[in-house]
Amino acid sequence: MKQAERTRSEKFVVRFPLGMRDWVAQAAGVSHRSMNAEIVARLRHSMDNWPDQLPGDEPAVPAGDEERFLLDHFRRLPAAKRRALIALLDGSRPTV
Fold first, then answer.
1. Is there a contact between 34 and 28 (Cβ–Cβ < 8 Å)?
2. For 39, what's the count of Cα atoms within 13 Å in the CB-facing half-sphere?
3. Which of 22, 35, 73, 88 has a Cα at 20 to 30 A from 2?
4. Residue-range domain boundaries for the chain
């Protein structure tokens, strides 16, 4: 990066979840970029592919289909996640 570009850039601190820094470092190595360049490239790709129009007032699930939608998703969860969700809804501690 040239000095002129450095002075025009903005700094932003990001806290990664554990292990993500290594993941980014590995991806950067494969792409032959710095970690910063890898993050910027991936963020730029994501933003370039962001939909022009986000859903407005349309509900994510058509009215009247909420229960079916939730049940379908619940049935696809692994057993441990189903138990945890039930415990959360019941207000009790989840069991493993």
1. yes
2. 15
3. 22
4. 10-48, 63-96
Q: Under CATH, which number does the domain 10-48 receive?
A: 1.10.1220
pLDDT in tens, 60-86: 777 778 888 888 888 999 999 999 888
Judge contact between 7 and 18, C-beta under 8 A.
Answer: no
| CA nearest neighbour of 35 among 54, 16, 53 | 16
Among the listed residues 46, 45, 22, 47, the one whose alpha carbon sits nearest the alpha carbon of residue 35: 22
* Residue positions counted in the chain: 96
Burial of 14 (0-12, 13-18, 19+ CB in 10 A): exposed
pLDDT number for residue 25: 95
